[in-house]
Structure formats: C-alpha cells, structure tokens
Automatic annotation (TrEMBL):
Domain HTH luxR-type: 313-378
Organism: Streptomyces liangshanensis
Residue ranges of the TM segments: none
Name of the protein this chain belongs to: Helix-turn-helix transcriptional regulator
UniProt keyword DNA-binding present: yes
A Pfam family matched in the record: GerE
Amino acid sequence: MGRYGGTERTVRVRDSVVRAAGAARTVEDFFDAVTRAMAPALRFDVWAGVTVDPDTLINTGGNYRNAVPDTLMPRMLDIEYREGDVNSLPELARRPVPVGLLSEAVGGDLHRSPRYRDIAGPLGYRDELRVLLRDRHGAWGALVLGVGDDGEGFGPAATSFAAALAQPLGDALRRLHLTRRAQEEPAGTAPGLILLDDAYRPVHLTPAVARWFDDLPEGPAPAPPLGAVRGPAAGGAPGEGAGPGGRPPGLPPAVYAVAAAVRAPGARETLTSWAVTRSRGRVRLHAWQVDGPAPARVAVVVEQAAPGEHIALIVAAYGLTPRERDIATLVLRGLPTAEIARYARLSPHTVQDHLKSVFDKTGVRSRRDLVGALFARHFGPRRP
C-alpha cells in the first residue's frame, strides 16, 4: 500500500479527516482542516476547495490560494462552466462514485484536457484528483488535489481513499452551510454592476462592487506553486495588472463561474447564482450576455439576496425530503395547513405528518417555532 500503510492505517487517517471536518466551525476552515488531516495518507502538492450551489453546481466560493493564481482563475472557470472538460462537477455528480482522476479520464494523454493544457501543465502539475463532496441530500462542494511533475502520481489506493471521504465530507459541509447566516444590508447600498470582456477582464465596475466584495475571505498572494507560469495561459507578462504586493485584482471565483456558465451553449438567457461573504452573508449574482460591438460580453449584477431566496438552500441543508421541502417552504411563506394541502394535493392529515418530520429534523416543535428558528438562525442580523 506504500504511503497508505495498510488498510488499518488508512481507516485511522480517514476517521481523523472526518473528525477534522466535523470540528470545523466555518466553511473557510473546513478545507484547511481536511487537507491537513489527509496528508499522512494521501500525497498531493497543491489543493483547492470549492463550495457549490446544490441545485446548479455553479461555484459559489472557495479557496484556490494553494493551487491557482488569480491570473488564471477566469480561464479555469471558463473551461469548467463554458468550454467543458473531463471530470466536470456535473459529470461527477452523475457517477455512483463521485471521484475523477484526470490522467485516467483522458486515457493517459493529458494534452487532451484544456484544463491541463492551459492550467495544470503550465503550473507544473502532472495529475489531478477531484472529489465531489456530496451526501444523500445533494452536492455541497468539491476537493481538487494536484501532484507535481516529480510526484509519484495517484493510484487506485488514492482514489479509493478519496471515494471513502466523499459522503462524510459532503455531510459535514452541508451542516456547515447551516451555520452561515445572511445579514441585512444597510438601506441605500446600490447593487453592483460588473461588465466583463471575452477573457473575463473587467471592462467596467460600478463603485458599489468594491463594497460588496471587499470582505471576501482572502489569503496572501502565492507564487505559482510548481514553477513559473508559461505561455499564453499566464495572461500577460509576469506581474501584469497586479495590485499591491503583486496580487492581481481578481474578482471572486463565483463571479467568473456564473459569467462563464451563462455563455455555455444552451444556457438560459439569464443565470442566477450566489457568492458568500463574511459580513454580508450570501449575495445574489445575476448574469447575462451583452450583445453589440462594445468590448463587454457579459454583465453580472451583485445584490443582497432576499431572505426568501435562501429558503430552498436552507431546507435542503437540513436533509428534508423533496415533499418536506415543499411543505416547509409553504409554511415559511405563511400558508395555513388547508392551503398547503390544496397546493400539495395532499390531505391535511398527511401534511401534518410531513410537518412532524420537518420539526424533528430542524429541532423545533411547532410551525411558529419553525419560522422563528430558521429566520433567527439563518436570515436575521448577527449578534455582536
């Protein structure tokens, strides 16, 4: 088993990873804790952690500072959500085991992958292992691990180890979603408008954009992890467009993701997604393509998400069944049992049975408690 040290040791490390995930208090801490705990059993040189919308699998945030420079972020997410590549998150979501190894997916010819040609190869990675973090209620994020040219690569033991973590880490990440609460934005703050060109470079940013995104989790600007970026993937000369300390003025990954997704073949005219900020909670993103001769090709508006927009995510994160989600949503909208029964085409007695299950899963005893608890936990302003 090499680095894995046998089945018994692998199980011990896996249990340690699950404990670390369960002990994390924020999504930001989750990926740091998980990757540290994995290191004794799984060799990797770089990693990225991603959170996704469980309905669309569009990126809503993440930690790339250990893997991808900001200069390459737009191209990476363009490949992910517009151009397409092997082991995409939707593809992994359709698999019985949501794990994908890049070298295996391309039959050993890494240059078949645009993600390798434009991102991993120029950065000096030789392979990539992706794990979609999902439980029985949906997908909540992904873990991407890379190994350098001088590494031993990922074998069957590595993919099996990663597969064993997909469900427990998905469950832990889902629970952490419940700890994120939206905070009301002070009155008078205008929505922000972002115009991007074909390469996702900002053409225009309204002044409000900085106020929406200046509190996003941010780490120090890394040097390219495994060698200098080469060729056109670098997006220009070294340091071009960099901000203070050499950090390029990048937008949040969630902005690039929804902008790329709306440009994908067959995409809807307008796509809606969200991003997570530290002090403002979830903010809503709306993207559409811009027609005309101007350099702008995509517009993205960022604004505070209304409390009702979080309902679907919150009830999903509590592990409610589809029927329970429908009924809980109607309760949160203030409908009485008789109207819920009519909308859901159920008897009032069946509605009450479903409500009892909802109460058990959310830890409340009544409809009033349900409404009060969910809004207090997830939609109300944070207490100092």
